[in-house]
Records
---
Amino acid sequence: MNWRGWFDRLVVLLILLALWQAGSMALGTYWLSGPWLTVSRFFASLWDGELIFHASYTIQEATVGCVIGGVPAVLLPFALRKHPVVVAILDPFMVGGYGAPKLAFAPLFILWFGIGIESKIALVAAVVFFIVYFSTLAGIRALDTRLVQMAQMVGANERQVGRYIVFPGAVPSIFAGFRIAVPYAIGAAVIAELISSNRGLGYLVQTGAMNFDTTQVFVAILAATLIVHGFIAIVDIGERFLLRWRPRGAALVVDQGL
Amino acid sequence: MAAAPILEIKALGKRFPARSGREPPPWIIQDMTFSVGEGELLTIVGPSGAGKSTLLNIIAQIEVASAGEIAFGDERFASSEQKSLQPGLNRRIGYVTQDDNLLPWRTTIENVLFPHEVQGTLDDKARTQANELISAVGLSGFENYYPHELSGGMRKRAALIRTLVYDPPIILMDEPFAAVDAQTRTQLQEDLLRLWSLKRKTILFVTHDITEAIALGDRALVLSRRPSRVAAEHPIPIPRPRNVKDIFTMPGFAAIYEHIRADVQ
Amino acid sequence: MTTADLTSGYSESRTIPRRWLVIGGRIALALALLLAWEWGARSLGPLFFAPPLATFQRIVEMAASGQLLTDILATMRVSALGFVIGCACGIGLPFILQQLPRVTAAVEPFIMASQGIPKYALTPWLILWFGIGDAPKVIVVTLFTFYITFITVFAGIRGVDQRLISMARVMGASERTIARKVIWISLLPFFFTGLKVALPRAVSAAIVGEFLVATEGVGFSIEHARQLSDTTGVFAGIVVAVSLVLIINSVVNALERRALRWRPVDRDMQI
């Protein structure tokens, strides 16, 4: 991209920061903390470990939830590949689960598992499961049957077909699913913390607001946003590495947004 | 030609897949009978839609016949008994399809070694042989390239040696060179003949290109329109080794070409 | 099973036609889930599980007393308001940006970056500003709706633009009005997709927002029940919440099918 594009973006950034700073000075930091305050508190919090303490909690919830929700979501379509009737039976339930607001279950999970980390993990897992299930299913359905025939011609059995043909073919879709799920996962972790928690970035937001400490609120939100983008970057890097074989410009699933 | 045919097709028939209508669907192939000698390169020509691919699929055992019988040496496969197919007849039949069907996520060498990996025979000997085949078709230096980085002709070659690497006695080829430009096609045809002269395999080569059928085959079968059967059989009198590039100039070419073309109409 | 079966679909002649097998299986699964629910209630106790019957009884009570309607209306009020504002911005902004390509290029990365902000996390700060009324929830719903519709319509406009330009050139650049009409018709599927995704999202965002700040509403009833350890109330509220969103989902999908049926726009437009 040309230098004029970079220049424009820099200008926009400076304008946004200036507006932010001006607003903060006009309204007072009780209501709107300023950019300088936020960034300096961010690093201070990072240094003394407080931010790490809370952020790691949220990250833990998101990661473990992604694994607990994501792994069955990937395995199930593979296991059911030879049983399309079962997939058809499950379909309305899965679609219902996908469309239903999983976050509505947050209070129930808190009731069941307490205000500790388990309820947040459960919520994240529920959110991630349906997203990854459908993208994995799509990846398997897009299977090129000619490749399966080729493998069978050279003597591959069912297990080998699954391992050498079906799975690698579905990997791009699985990655797409996780990339879409990441913001939802972090969002679910944060909302569960907002409702009831004694630790985590959502907790920081809640307590910050209660104490009129908007700087803390912004620091926590900034940290959460960075985590979302960081996770997406990790998924992208993993994808680029594992999918070196793809021709450039291959169409990817378009994100529908948060 | 060998005394006993390695492959016999007897009154083979195949219907279209059944739809929910009352009548049985029409035949694609009906009453097809021919035999193939060991080490023979048999070309099969016919109009499109004549079920040439279907025929190969049935021989390769990835599709069930509706009627008739196939005999491989001493083994017989009748259509009514074909409940469980053995695709590739336990690696005794190789199949080079129209699409190269290379696994996009594997490099050239990994694709070529795929049959060995599946069969559990991946050892140094296999690797050496694979590398020899790779240089035999001029793909040296491209071992670690992914299919999307190779040209169409290169992918065809890779698909071809992937089949050769596990040494099946019978190889089916379904218009493998149709999708490349004329120059590459001639080159691939020469490569095929050269490889074939080193290791005499039985090859069934389907094509819609009469020139190709003449250039490559010991014998050319002409299929009729649907429901197709063997309309004619033409031994190719042009002696080997054949000059594929200038096959038109070979004595007897024009005559056999005219014969075959008349039969294809 | 032959490979031909794999490629050509499923053989028609089984002992039971597949369609009945699937329907029967679904009914069986639904019953099994219901039984599991009942068993869960019996073995895990009333604190963790409310039995299905008690849950539905509670819903009936809520309906009879009018509380159900009040809650639903409260939630829908919030989501409708946020949805409308969000759509207006999400649909309007791409059109404005389209006229200012340099601004668009400069601003776009910031919009995409801001998408990573967990929107519910803004709620406590919004409560600070606007108190415990509807405003914080409406703003959050607006944000959700905005991003969804903006991204969809923005992508649509961009896609149309390229094709439109070449088409206009080939046709000899007809009047702007015609061009505008072409843009509109091409954009309709994108509109519908965006609205279709955003509306249920808006409702669920309102519900979740009520966990944090509300005095009434579907979400409020769930969280309120939890705080009183009223498990039956939690279950009842969740059933209402899930049903509400799923019903809206189905209605929106049905509307889309009808709307697209008599439009000449190509239905194959993928997002």
---
Amino acid sequence: MVSRELKEKFAEVEWGDSHGQEVVRLGRDQLIEFCKAAFEAGFEVLADVTAVDWDRTRQPRFDLVINLLSMQHRRRLRVMVGIPDGDPVAPSLVPIWPGANFGEREVYDMFGITFEGHPDLTRILMPDDWEGYPLRKDFEVGAVPVQFKASHQVN
Amino acid sequence: MTDQTVDKPEVEEVDLWVSGTEESEWDTYSTDEGAQKMRLEETGPRLTEQLGSVVTDDYDLDDIVTEDERMIINMGPQHPSTHGVLRLQLELEGEMIRRSKSVIGYLHTGMEKTAETLTFLQGPTNVTRMDYLAPLHNELCFSLAVERLLDIEVPPRAAVIRILMTELNRIASHLVAMATNGMDIGALSIMTYGFRDREQILAFFEKTTGLRLNHNYIRPGGVAADLPVGWRADVTDICDTITRRLVDYEDMLKENPIWTGRTRGVGVITADECRAYGITGPTLRASGVAWDLRKAFPYSGIEQYEFEVPVGEHGDVYDRYRIRIEEILQSVSILRQAAAAMPKGDFRIDDRKITPPPRHRIDESMEALIHHFKIFTEGFRVPAGETYVAIESPRGELGCYLVADGSGKPWRMHTRAPSFYNLQALPIMMADSVVADTIATIASLDPVMGDVDR
Amino acid sequence: MSVRRTAPTNVLTSTVDKAARWAQTRSMFPATFGLACCAIEMMATGAPHNDLARFGMEVFRASPRQADLMIVAGRVSQKMAPVLRQVYDQMPDPKWVISMGACASTGGMFNNYALVQGVDQIVPVDIYVPGCPPGPQGLMHGILTLHDRIMAGKA
């Protein structure tokens, strides 16, 4: 079985279960080693890489979430890595899965987390000279106040 | 010369608006993306990425650097054949493409940020506009994620209705793919045929959901309304018409020497490269990998229907086109089985904390009124947790990563868009081909820019 | 946007004016500016069921130099705005703009940082077509209204 080998090799990390899906929580320094082992163990496809901003409700502030998929064994695995606010750097997974390229650029664009070892870390969705990282919780939605005809407010 | 006063005729100046003279702050913006620009002398990892060769290295770097017939052209965001607002920078050597770099973000709508301000019931309206050719798939993915966090099961009738609608949507989406694929390569009549058949499906959608596109029909807890009277005749009619007409389209394209000449051996990608880049959907299946999420991780009761997964061999544009046609036929077969097996019952779950009560009950019962009020103002609460649900959309693996924090709005909603990851295949597929093949390749990849940029 | 008058008006020039306006409405070439979901409905308007060719508008010109109507179909993001302005400036006179759909007219349901809240902040708009997406009949009503306005000399 795929995950049992991994579990034995990495017995000291936090393995969990979220609504029937296997989730493992790692530290930043263990990420590359774990991902290489997961790739060897059969997770040959990186389905998705994204991040969550927990703002002040939790430390570390960001969670880097990597969804792995194994087509040969029909399994999924989720890897979560905590990224602190003062040092938002993570190792890049592009050397292992080249498909992480666009996903990591999107995380950099939206959250400001830089990836060491990424071939071309530039903004991908926002214009190049945009300031700020939109999906962070302290970035306002940017809603324009809409005044309806029937309302009595005056600008 | 001295001034001579000449009698000028009466000039009647009319107050006209003349273009180009009004003040616009957008005049000063340049469309030049600094870091995104492809440079003639590119080195290191950026060069490797633009060459697109990862698994098989078939370039000699000296060969590229010392040529002086190189030119970088820009297939800008406004282009009739880029399937939306995709910008491609190509480095050409004569007519051959050596490097390519795609620039996206021209349709970025901030949907993931908007999702954090909408309740879970309003979520499908937002998500449905991502992949606008298969809107019901987006809604289904989001609803499945919410239902998994809520730990509820929809009634059997709702599950079968969902499969019916999403398979109809798959047929509609593949018809557009076939139509635009044909139009880009030059078979203009296919465009009219594809859209003509789509009209029948869209008319059925309008009857059932109220809208032709972006329906907001599949919601957490079930579907928004029951199927209309006479739906079975409509669906059977659609199935029969599509099956009959597909024979004509096959006759037009399958053995056509111009079509095969322009699509065979073009835009090739191997199975290893597909897996390395996370490419799923018809592109992956055309390269020989029999991976379909409807068979691997079934959802919404689709495992009870018998259907096959078409698999190609060569991984070129022709195989992808054939696979889409075959998938239309397989979807027609699923539709017939679903229409025959439709159970009776509720079209949404009975839990009044999640789905609103029927309108007439609001006049009769105080509790129904309170439930209605709470659902439409505050929204229903979802217990804290996170999950990732993936379904098979016409473009590949469409996933939704949802994080809830116990309130009525999601804390984070992220969509794993298939077209976003599929676009990474473009440099590989376009390597060492001619410019005309670029169009065919992009059309066969079938990207939807709403999905890519979100 | 009618014929510029620099001579005294009399019945002869007004007939020429009217003939010019009639010619402008009967063969308007739209420029392809389909961005998002509204683009699909625009294509469906050109499709056989709701035929746009009967108004002489089936040919969607790819080059803005050869077009005189720009149908902004879809949501305009911050990155796309300068491109929109550039394409509009490249169109020769006389030209008209139809803002199709809710996102092009006002920003639609996406009142956030990423979209321009209404295309009329960038280009002058003649007709706004509401809807999300408008549907072929709605778009055709907008186009025919534009034709009527041109014939009446108001646009």
